[in-house]
Amino acid sequence: xxxxxxxPVLIDQEHMGAFQWRVLILCFLIALxxxxxxxxxxxxxxxxxxxFKLQANELAPILTAGIVGMTVGAMLLGLVGDRIGRxxxxxxxxxxxxxxxxxxxxxxxxxHILAMRFIAGLGMGxxxxxxxxxxAEYSPARARGTVITGVLLGLPAGAMLGGLLxxxxxxxxxxxxxxxxxxxxxxxxxxxxxxxxxxxxxFKAMRGDAAGQIYVRNILARISNRALPTDAWxxxxxxAKVRGSVKALFSDGYAGKTLAIWxxxxxNWIAWFMLLSWLPTVLxxxxxxxxxxxxxxxxxxxxxxxxxxPLSYLMPRVSSRRLLVGMFVLGIGVALGLxxxxxxxxxxxxxxxxxxxGIGGQQLAxxxxxxxxxxxxxxxxxxxxxxxLGRAGAIIGSAVxxxxxxxxxxxxxxxxxxxxxxxxxxxVLTIKMRVGEPVRSASSLAH
Length: 447
Fold this sequence. Notes:
Helices cover about 75% and strands about 0% of the residues. By secondary structure, it is mostly helical. Strands 1-2 form a two-stranded parallel sheet. The longest helix has about 55 residues, at about 375-430.
């Protein structure tokens, strides 16, 4: 006879220990370098345009290639992770985006850069869901929302670090130097991952073999302060085994809600990635010196990070629908204000900072919108498909930014941001939440 022991229940009963913090720090570092490399093209864009004598709108295919790669990578690497494990899949993703980013530094043709950005995107897009899953599994339910938020902040922190490095070092090391840093750093991290990153315990348990059970026992012995039963058979959570269906998102009265939420994701990601991908190029076109243009990326991501933890505290306690309405109203005001700000740089950077909340803050709040809109059994499917629509919006936003910049200059570009934000606001207003929606636990976000 064996004694079934639930891995999530056991972890929930323990305090966060040194081993778990090690896992979370490694996940954060993967996200940090992922964020750096994701935005590398944005803050080197003006220099690349100059080096290859390109027009601003010719940068769009390169920016879009990386995001297309991220979309494909998120789907493919997730499947790889289900087959071979989260640990090797995460390491594969880091190796891919590290090597491709490093190779970008040695490109002599725009087509080479485009190809390398697509390949780098495969790794970057695939790493994010894997590290979030690992971080969620190794943290107790009561801290899971904060942990996931903390790991996610590695993405804007990496972008902020890249913008700061580009502003200070771009004149010295050139655009190639930025990609060398962005490639060498994750490859160095890869060595640490090989030694220190553990496998998903639930993945090991679900394999159902003796070797997996021994591995889980050894790891849990380092996490738990309690003696484990000698005849324990470790089991994964039911949520790890059960998945909703896409058809269910359109049944039982959910169809209108699903379409509205997909529209919000699509439209918000259009605006957010249009801003992130083109901001340094737009600021340079408006007259800001090229070496200062990456500070726009630094500013918008800094405010996003500063606002993230207050938002993570606030979101479980208020209506996510009302919060999103307020954010979209703020974002529309920011877009219109930037359109009229001209070269008043203090005002421009103030508004760019507010965009971190009014356009970027929705990236956090949208997860809570799904929690309030669907029952637990549908949340994983709803989140996956909504993020898929969001990534489609990211591709569109990165592609059309150059068109609006060429059409209306910096002012027209910023004004254009208000269009998807207005449409997203209308979509949010059509969504009806479940009764008691603001009251939820941090653990529900991981389901």
